[in-house]
Amino acid sequence: MTTTRPRVAIAGMSIESSTFSPHRSGWEAFTLRRGGELVAHYPFLADGAPLRDAADWGGVLHARSLPGGAVPADVYEAVRDEIVTTLRAQQAEHGPYDGLLLDIHGAMTVVGRDDAEADLAAAVRAAVGPGTLISTTMDLHGNVPRELAEASDLITCYRMAPHEDAWETRERAASNLLSRLRSGGAPKKAWLQVPVLLPGEKTSTRLEPAASIYADVARVAELPGVLDAALWVGYAWADEPSCRAAVVVTGDDEEVIVREAERLGRRYWDARDDFAFVAPAAPYEECLAAALASPARPYFLSDSGDNPTAGGAGDVTWTLARLLAEPAFSGTSADVTLPDGGTRADAGPPAGGGTSANGGLTAIYASLPDAAAASEVAKAWAEHGADAEVDVEAGARVDDGPHGPVRLRGVVEHVSEGDPDAGIVAVIRVGGLRVILTERRKPYHLERDFTSIGLDPRSTDVVVVKIGYLEPDLYDMAADWMLMLTPGGVDQDLLRLGHHRLTTPTHPFHTFASEPDLTPTLL
Question: In whole numbers, what is the pLDDT of the chain averaged over residues?
Answer without folding.
Answer: 93
